[in-house]
Oxidoreductase, NAD-binding domain protein
Amino acid sequence: MGKTVKMGLLGMGRIGKLHAMNIQNSLPNAEIIVAVDPFLNEEMEAWAKGIGITNCSKDPRDVFENKEVEAVLICSSTDTHADFIIRSARAGKQIFCEKPIHTDLDKIKEALAEVEKAGVKLQLGFVRRFDRSHKKVRDVVASGQLGKPYVVKVCSRDPEAPPMSYVAVSGGIFMDMMIHDFDMVRYLAGSDITEVNTVGACLVNPDFAKYDDVDTAIVTLKFANGAIGVIDNCRQAPYGYDQRVEVHCEKGCVQDNNNLENEAYISTASGVEGAKPTWFFLERYNDAFIAEMEDFVDAVLEGKEVPVGGKDGLESVRVAMAARKSLLEKRPVQLSEI
Amino acid sequence: MGKTVKMGLLGMGRIGKLHAMNIQNSLPNAEIIVAVDPFLNEEMEAWAKGIGITNCSKDPRDVFENKEVEAVLICSSTDTHADFIIRSARAGKQIFCEKPIHTDLDKIKEALAEVEKAGVKLQLGFVRRFDRSHKKVRDVVASGQLGKPYVVKVCSRDPEAPPMSYVAVSGGIFMDMMIHDFDMVRYLAGSDITEVNTVGACLVNPDFAKYDDVDTAIVTLKFANGAIGVIDNCRQAPYGYDQRVEVHCEKGCVQDNNNLENEAYISTASGVEGAKPTWFFLERYNDAFIAEMEDFVDAVLEGKEVPVGGKDGLESVRVAMAARKSLLEKRPVQLSEI
Amino acid sequence: MGKTVKMGLLGMGRIGKLHAMNIQNSLPNAEIIVAVDPFLNEEMEAWAKGIGITNCSKDPRDVFENKEVEAVLICSSTDTHADFIIRSARAGKQIFCEKPIHTDLDKIKEALAEVEKAGVKLQLGFVRRFDRSHKKVRDVVASGQLGKPYVVKVCSRDPEAPPMSYVAVSGGIFMDMMIHDFDMVRYLAGSDITEVNTVGACLVNPDFAKYDDVDTAIVTLKFANGAIGVIDNCRQAPYGYDQRVEVHCEKGCVQDNNNLENEAYISTASGVEGAKPTWFFLERYNDAFIAEMEDFVDAVLEGKEVPVGGKDGLESVRVAMAARKSLLEKRPVQLSEI
Amino acid sequence: MGKTVKMGLLGMGRIGKLHAMNIQNSLPNAEIIVAVDPFLNEEMEAWAKGIGITNCSKDPRDVFENKEVEAVLICSSTDTHADFIIRSARAGKQIFCEKPIHTDLDKIKEALAEVEKAGVKLQLGFVRRFDRSHKKVRDVVASGQLGKPYVVKVCSRDPEAPPMSYVAVSGGIFMDMMIHDFDMVRYLAGSDITEVNTVGACLVNPDFAKYDDVDTAIVTLKFANGAIGVIDNCRQAPYGYDQRVEVHCEKGCVQDNNNLENEAYISTASGVEGAKPTWFFLERYNDAFIAEMEDFVDAVLEGKEVPVGGKDGLESVRVAMAARKSLLEKRPVQLSEI
């Protein structure tokens, strides 16, 4: 067996637990040796122990100051990401951070500067890039076999809307949900976004309006390479997690379908019925969560580039800000305005 | 405009009317100038007139003795096919005949001998060969791009069982229904059948047993070129006409799906529902009926080979006999026994 | 046989010929008795004769003044549509007119006023409404079974760009191509469009820019009923005619796939390959062209409402104008501005 | 955390390692505490240690005599299965055994008698029953919603043929490969098999004939409940693991498609190309291997019935024997002959 990356986990919420389980169960060359959560309780400790993490704490210093810890997983609440990146970088740790880095651009830039100064790696948790189907679409585009990309389309719809208590602190549909799609279209187009225009509406639940938010939005895009694009988001698609991408190029089109719960279908006098898409991101992106962590571990162990870096984290936030601005100001917004 | 093939129609039942409408409406270089039916009535005459056939009769001699008639369409009842082929051939007419030629092998051979003697063309109505999807499957196999064929599979299921009155005179499932599939597997494999084994059952309606018939049957096959195959038939598939073929070859597989009533589908919390296959042969093989007649007209006009000839008519009947013999004798039957 | 609608055809170009063939060959209760084209030549006359139209002329008066003619098919060049509608209406003829009515709003309104005054029917040639799959999608939405529509999406891409000589006089992508899609989204949403925003680019061929046109465009839409939508168009999709619609509603989604050239597919070590979409509108909307004419004939014979009326013709032109305005002025445009 | 089932593993070959990894990584309430292999070497010990198994041995007594061991996983070579079942049963252990139990019927019956005497559980490793799609097909049939089953079809093709050295000891295509499908059709039909007829050929490699074996076979089946069926197997399908089932019932049909490597597809002028099926059983049945073990652990912990029992193991062997007999004797064989 080769070297193992020892990790510290910050945040034991849903996404922190998910990464921790993947690392402990599926990544032979990585190991979480300490887990921190400000709300640490008995349930969390028992859960950690169950997957072999015996060292738990409420204090992030137990990660940053632990000499054995080579890499930090930042899975805490969004407002802590930038500070934890800075503290990790200053401690010389490699960093994996969930998106978004922060909702304040200056804070993001400060964090990225610290990362650069420290010369550590920073990988952002844009997990969808690691989905087999999306990745295949991007690989086909990037190979050039279809010629230049003309139009990039992403349809991204959650199965059910979050509770209003979450909406209140979510940062809005662009920063919380469509940010994944902004990263996806940049990934697919191989180019930065230069302009956005937003159409939005509260169709699922009028209460979204209370937070100056919408539950359904369509954003058109211009890319630096001349391509154009469109993303549509909805907080509620009762048939399951709808996650499809489509890139039209000079010589053809490459797109993908959803994963289904199963491949069985029933033919009767009333039609042909099959399974619906897998329910939500845990089901759809299960393998992708493992794949992104494998890539991070590889990057650390072998000194390779991370596949999703700080610039990707910055750009997706800028585009989210522009999309929101376009919604509020009812006009196309240039990224240069942000 | 070039030359037009003038035709005489024998039989104004469902299939005769179908061919007549296709010729009058869709084939610019063919025309039916006389139509005969022993049960000719006012409705038939009005229908004929409606599509431009003004000359109707009860006497087949009005076809055979008409000097203007270059080609005869035999769409009369099965027991008359062989005699009409003989009379057409002796009159020097080109012949299109619905399947089967006859249920008696000697009669078939006699008819084919007359055709050969007269040097006229005889095309059999195995319409499925002209279906776009089946034809594509066969073209891929015949091209050799997948190497040798190993296994040929045909799933062929009618949407609803015929009335028992029809079953009584149908000649049984092998002669009436599976005969199309015997021709199809020969077409796909590019080889004759040498052995069959039948498993059958009365599952849809026990009354089939009264006629020594079955409503559901699976027949395995050996081909002269070493390939093996299987056909499954059922008289009742409530979801519509199920017509799929599949050929496994050395380097891959080529198969087809059913045509659907439409391409719309609905995704809800209970699943994804699409349209069922088109209802029956009129819907599925609509274009194929036109295509086979175009080929016949071309063969007549340009002196080309017909795409489905007398030997194909003979072989499909022999295989149907062998399949029935296998069912009754509960053993594999060699085609050399027939 | 019942009553037959006698028709006069104006324009013997591609679309005029198409309708004529469908009427003569496939509609038993309609008949073209006179055909007019200002460039009438021997080829046109021979063609007309071949499908049973013996009366040809260069003068539209031979249609308007013919007492036998009950209905007029306007398939002439776009700039003549409005005038021919007016002259048909004044002559008391029923009218089927290809889209668009005109590119000048006043002219359209004048024509519609004459139609109303004369009390004749006017059906517009928005043929896609009669496509089996699109119609099924609309029927599901209109049934209310999925609740309110939230988002309407149309992907509409031609297989190959027209020659620049055509682009010069086409009226631009919005008036010439996307006009079909503006009608489609109104049909699917069951609601009028109130705002559009356009993103466009010359990606296929920079020469489009010479005509202040684009070859690729994405237009977002707001509807009067609160729904939002998006259409994407491209003049060139090398894999064939891409025509898909998708409506997301409260309780689910209904969408459709393209028709394919055939349903065969080949599985090998390098993947699974199937047929591409049918080539262009003649292949895809073949049945729909017949269906729209059947509905027009029914409307005339039975005094029913036409399925696509003058208002639909007017609205689609207004939206096309707004979409172009949005492109040129780089801002969202309200329909109330048009 | 609740009770954990402590297990002993017999056999550290491919399938033994697979089960061990699933248990150690994915089953929180089961644990392998001792692993035995007669060819135990350093590599195996290191591998075992890597997943937390510190106790390795060459002697099966270290499993049977270990008081802590509650359940035994028999993953050793086929000829040892029956004896290890007997020894496990006598030691009062719960048993999970890979298929087949043995190739000698008397030996199987002796083993099952010992299991019954000891009152322990015996689950057979027919993993395909736990595949999501196959299970859905069976659940639909078993629910009765489609009425009685009429025809059961299984297409089962391996991506590449095993080496001849394996063929020599495999027991032949029926005992080694189709045995899974015999179990599958029994599972789908919910009924025992009463008669088989085999057609087979050496098409992939003539060397199979040296072992009185075939590489391609089609077996038709009769079931006790009146249904009929067919299985086709081939040792080589270059496009990947082809695993499809189809059940035609009174009121409709339920079937499944293969899992694909990804859901992306490319449309170009030459067609539409998608991914091929997942490569082989490790890829296709990955989740199913975990699911069958979860069911076994549940059965042990909660005293429930095992989902696949000794009778299923016995019947599949009997049918495999009958299928081979049919091939060699060129006639249908009754199960009562075996």
Summary: Residues 108 and 150 of chain B are 31 Å apart (CA to CA). The mean pLDDT of chain B is 96. The interface with chain A takes residues 238-240, 242, 260, 267-277 of chain B (CB under 8 Å).
